[in-house]
Specification:
Layout (H helix, E strand, L loop, with lengths): L33 H4 L12 E5 L9 E6 L3 E2 L7 H9 L2 E4 L9 H7 L11 H4 L2 H12 L5 H4 L4 H7 L17 E2 L1 H11 L4 E3 L3 H9 L3 H19 L6 H10 L3 H12 L5 H21 L4 E6 L9 H7 L3 E4 L3
Length: 326
């Protein structure tokens, strides 16, 4: 499930405070019903990561754009089409899930360290059968990360580390890295073009969402992520990360959304909390800002497709959302 996590390598998230001027946690967004949105869903033929958003009732207003990102991608798989650069230039602002500059602020990051630990005396060993715990401990030992360091960490943060090359470096903190962050690359382009940068959410708000998932469920998800990655290393199947990168390179937003739905099955309201409710909170923001501030919104590509994805919800609300092909 690490593709659902924001682009934090293994440190970043915090507790709940909405971005200034945006919807507060618990506010009911004016989202269209699923039955209406279902007829507006991108299909497997709609292979585009960039989408143009316009109001058919306002011909004079400039369009905004949606761009689907993958938060971390191997450097050799990274690409950025000229249409995205043009969309940034045509926009007045660039918004992300959170402001990427927060992830480069050492003060903010250090302030989060105490919040990645589970409450009380709970440890990972308390949450899993011994055999599953041993598999996870052995997995992280091969990466050079001892379990005494990870034992009290919230399992969702450990899931973000699964499949990542710990020697690859952190692209958000500078220096050489085998990985790239679309958020960082796009924020640098926006700053070079003199475009203001913002976030639909804050790090604080995101951690509150993750904290709403029971630790026992997080632990089971961690075990499945480890088991899947180990099978990939043994050549039995592609890892989740490799599968998602392959879909991203195909611009397959419908497939990415379906993969999230499939792999969320059996984990209660995981998709509802971490994907759907966030989509529904973003749509009124995008709609409200459309006429006044043409903006490029760069969010995880898995948020775009599906019956309750951002594209379907915007369309069901009366907006025109069209793929922009290279």
């Amino acid at each position: 499930m690490r593709y659902l996590l924001p682009f934090f390598v293994f440190l970043g998230l915090a507790s709940a405070r909405p971005a200034t001027g945006l919807l507060a946690q618990g506010t009911a967004p004016a989202a269209p019903p699923t039955s209406d949105a279902a007829f507006q869903v991108p299909t497997t033929e709609d292979t585009s990561l960039l989408w143009r958003v316009s109001d058919p009732d306002n011909d004079t207003a400039r369009a905004s754009y949606l761009f689907g990102t993958i938060h971390l991608i191997p450097t050799e798989d990274y690409f950025l089409e000229s249409t995205v650069v043009r969309a940034i230039n045509d926009s007045e602002e660039v918004y992300f899930e959170i402001d990427p500059r927060d992830m480069q602020d050492p003060t903010k990051m250090m302030g989060l360290m105490g919040q990645i630990r589970m409450r009380g005396d709970t440890s990972l060993q308390d949450l899993l059968p011994q055999a599953r715990y041993d598999s996870i401990a052995e997995y992280f030992a091969t990466t050079g990360m001892p379990m005494f360091f990870l034992e009290k960490m919230k399992p969702m943060f450990l899931s973000a580390m699964v499949g990542q090359d710990m020697s690859a470096g952190n692209p958000l903190m500078g220096g050489d890295s085998k990985m790239k962050s679309y958020e960082l690359e796009l924020s640098e382009l926006a700053e070079a073009a003199g475009k203001p940068i913002g976030g639909l959410e804050t790090m604080d708000f995101q951690l509150a969402l993750f904290d709403s998932i029971p630790y026992s469920v997080q632990a089971e998800m961690l075990y499945r992520a480890v088991a899947t990655d180990m099978a990939g290393e043994m050549g039995e199947t592609d890892s989740e990360f490799e599968e998602m990168v392959a879909m991203y390179r195909r611009h397959a937003v419908a497939e990415m959304s379906q993969l999230i739905t499939d792999q969320s099955a059996g984990y209660g309201n995981f998709e509802e909390l971490l994907v759907v409710r966030r989509n529904e909170s973003w749509v009124p923001i995008i709609t409200e800002r459309l006429a006044a501030t043409p903006t490029l919104y760069a969010v995880g590509a898995g948020h775009l497709g599906g019956e309750r994805g951002v594209i379907a919800l915007l369309r069901a609300g009366g907006l025109t959302v069209e793929p922009v092909y290279p």
